[in-house]
Amino acid sequence: MNRLFEIASELNQISVSRMKLRSEIDFIGESIIRHEAEMIPEGGWPGSNADTRKAMEKAAKASDLTLQNLANGKINAQSEMDALEIERDALIAERDAYQWTIRDRENVARGVESVFVAKPSEPEPVSDEQAKDNLAASARLFEMDTIADACKWDKMTEFIDPEVGRARARYRQLEAEQAEYEQKYNL
What we know:
Blueprint: H1 2-39, H2 50-63, H3 65-116, H4 128-142, H5 147-160, H6 162-184
Helix pairs in contact: 1-3, 3-6, 5-6
């Protein structure tokens, strides 16, 4: 759970950085437009035809150091923005995976709870014979005092209901993934 708070904090920091970079990129873009407008000579670009004028404009822009510095600044800021986007996407993917792991565990817990925990409803009347049978079945379940007996019980329930087997396998897989995740991030 702490990792989710860390991810939220990192995403917040990235959002602030992205806003600053977006402002910087916009400001540089406006500065480039303003500087290009200031570069135009009073009578327009010299030349006898449109191609010559276009060539003169390109040559003037290519040789202007201020325009080059502004363009490089915009490229660098955009590169930083792209790096932040990649980092943001990775954090969102990590957060989503973590949240799905938590949801899967909750679903497994709800499934186990629905099977093993009595529902808070009014009990139906049970005959004496049914009560004896239930008591005997419970006693047989609690007599399993070895791991081998427990494993036999697991195999038997998986044989009777394949969904139980798949749920147990998924739960073991989620536990392994969580342990690996916690080991990887030193949680």
